[in-house]
Structure prediction request, 138 residues.
Amino acid sequence: MLCLCFQIKTSKSTAKWAYMVKQSIMAKVKFTFEDKSIADVVAEGVEAGYSILEVTEDHDVHLNHNCGGVCACSTCHIYVVKGADSLEEISDKEEDFIDRAINPKLDSRLACQCIILADDADIEVIIPDQKRIIGHEH
Ligand code: FES
Prediction:
């Protein structure tokens, strides 16, 4: 019965349905901000293989990244409060730079090093107040 229903859908609605299914199995990243004047941003339909820094750039989330994403500064410091298991593991070099960030915590990461590994990742990140960081976006 379900197959019959599927077959009689128009090609336009089938494409929309396929798009919705694809979106639902792709990663989601929710950004909240220490600066409470900024509204939350939810990035849906994110492909595995992208870094959290790249997701911020694609969704107009302001996050400084002075070294250009090569793990040579700490300006892209974030807090990963959900979905850390879906990200590339932290390296010793990243830990060293996190130690230089403002207010590092146990869930601190560098956004440029957080590669999304799972297609169905559900990640939540807090963006530190960028007014306290001397940096720039590229
Ligand atoms: S941008 Fe410099 S460490 Fe991420």
The two ends are 53 Å apart (CA to CA).
